[in-house]
Amino acid sequence: MSNKPDAFLRCEGCKKVLFSKEFVKNLRVCPNCGHHYRLSADERIEITFDEGSFVELDADMKSEDPLQFPEYAEKLARGFASTGRNDSVVRGMAKLGGFPVSAAVADFRFMGGSMGSVAGEKITRTLETAIDERIPAVIFTATGGARMQEGLLSLMQMAKTSAACRKAYDAGVPYICVFTDPTMAGVLASYASLADVILAEPKALVGFAGARVAAQASGGQKLPDNFQTSEFAYEHGMIDAVVQRKDVRATLINLVTHFTGGKHG
Ligand SMILES: [Zn+2]
C-alpha cells in the first residue's frame, strides 16, 4: 500500500473530476463550482497566518472525561489519531501581515470540532491573551456545537467564553471570528456570534438547531432553500461578510491594520 495521495478526486459539489495538485493549490476549493472543502487546523494555519509565525500554546491540555461517559475515552483517542492533537481547538500566537494576533483554529476532524472544557478554556485564553497583550483575537470556528459527553461542563463553556468576549469588548480589544463549515449550536450561540467582526466562508452551514428540528419547531413550514448558509446569515444581518477562502487572509490583514491603526505591537 502506498501513502501517496490520489492524483484525482471527484468534487462533492459538482461531481467533476479534479486534479489533486490543482485542488490543493486552489486552497481546497473546487476551481469549477467553488465548493469550499473543510480544512484541518494545520492547513488553515498554513494558508492564513504569516509563514512560520504560528506558535502553539496549551497543546498538552486534555479532557479528563469527568463523567466517565460511555465511549468518550475512545472518541478522544480517535480524535488524537486523526489530528495528532489533544482536542478540537488549536490556539497560539501568530502574525498577520506582520501584526501579532492571538489566534485559535478549530479542527472538525476532532469529534466534529465540538466544544468541551478544553476547547472552551482555549478559546477563553485566546481572548485573555489578546486582552493582556492588547492585540486582536482571531478565531476560526468549525463545529457541530457543545460536546455532549461532558454534559453541563461543556454547556458551561458557552457562558465562560461569552464572558471572555465581554471582557475583550470592555478592554477595547478587537475580536474577529471566521465561520467555516459548519458553525452550529452551542458555539454559534456563544463566542462565535459575539465577535466584533464576523466573516464566513461561502455556503458554510451556520445555525443553532439542525434543519429538521427547525422545520418541526416552525410547525412543518417549508424552510428557505438557502436556510442556514453563510449567505442566508449575511442577508439577515447576522454576519458582516461572506469571504472567499482565497481572500480571507487579506481581509483579516486589512481588519487588523484598521483596528491597530497600522502600528505593530
Ligand atoms: Zn466542484
The DSSP helix count reads 9
CATH topology annotation of the largest domain: 2-enoyl-CoA Hydratase, Chain A, domain 1
What kind of sheet is the major sheet?
8 strands, mixed
CATH class of the largest domain: Alpha Beta
Describe this protein's structure:
This protein is an alpha/beta fold. It folds into 2 domains: 10-37, no CATH class; 40-260, 2-enoyl-CoA Hydratase, Chain A, domain 1 (Alpha-Beta Complex). It is 37% helix and 19% strand. It has helices at 20-25, 41-48, 72-83, 117-133, 151-171, 185-188, 211-217, 230-235, 245-260, and strands at 8-10, 17-19, 55-57, 89-96, 99-106, 137-143, 175-184, 197-200, 206-207, 241-242. The strands form 2 sheets. Strands 3, 4, 5, 6, 7, 8, 9 and 10 form an 8-stranded mixed β-sheet that branches. It has a two-stranded antiparallel sheet with strand order 1-2. The longest helix is centred in the middle third of the chain and has 21 residues, at 151-171. It is globular and about 50 Å long. It starts with 7 loop residues before the first strand and ends in a 5-residue tail after the last helix. The model has no long low-confidence stretch (mean pLDDT 93). It binds zinc ion. Residues 11, 13-14, 16, 30, 32-33, 35 line the site of zinc ion.
